[in-house]
Amino acid sequence: MYESSLLSDCLAEILAPIENPHYLVVREGKLFGIHRDDYHTVPPKLAVKKDLAQMFYKSWCKYVGPTEPIYTRTEEGRKRRLKATMKAFSSTFKQQVKH
User: Fold this and answer.
1) Are 14 and 21 in contact (CB under 8 A)?
2) What are the CA-CA distances from residue 24 to residues 17, 71, 72, 73, 99 (Å)?
3) Residue 70 main-chain phi, psi, to 5 deg
4) Contact 23, 70 (CB under 8 A)
5) What distances in angstroms separate CA 55 from CA 42, 52, 94, 98, one per listed residue?
6) CB of 76 within 8 A of CB of 68?
7) Rounded distance, CA 13 to CA 42, Å?
8) In terms of pTM, does the model score above 0.85?
9) How does pLDDT run across 51-99, given as a tens digit for each residue?
10) DSSP letters along 17-51, please?
11) Is 71 helix (H, G, I), strand (E, B) or coil?
């Protein structure tokens, strides 16, 4: 039961609007023929240590697609986080994700 709850929580955090994450990942794709980058938060339970964030990143690349991890605690990372907050597809849905 604990593992199911943990997976559910992490998935909700990945799909939720971006607030103040330690790490981000970018998913590239097309929507109606238009290229778009979509940003997702690395779940906080996996972003507490760099090693855990790297494991998440490697799994993301394997199952979702190639990307780059973005550490948001640097000046460049903060700029990318602000861009992600404005442009993320998830930010259009302000309602909370339901389990």
Assistant:
1) no
2) 12, 7, 7, 11, 22
3) -120, 115
4) yes
5) 11, 5, 29, 26
6) no
7) 8
8) no
9) 999 999 999 999 988 888 899 999 999 999 988 888 766 555 555 555 5
10) PP-S-SEEEEEEEEETTEEEEEEEEPPTTTSSSHH
11) strand
Instruction: Say which residue the tokens 């199911």 belong to.
Output: 4
Question: In angstroms, what is the C-alpha Rg of the chain?
Answer: 13
Residue 65, φ and ψ in degrees, nearest 5: 155, 165
Contact 81/15 with Cβ under 8 angstroms?
Answer: no
**Length of the chain counted residue by residue:** 99
Which two three-digit tokens encode residue 14? Answer: 């990945």
Burial pattern 59-97, b for ≥16 Cβ within 10 A else e, equals ebeeeeeebebbbbeeeebeebbeebbeebbbeeeeeee
Amino acid in position 37: D
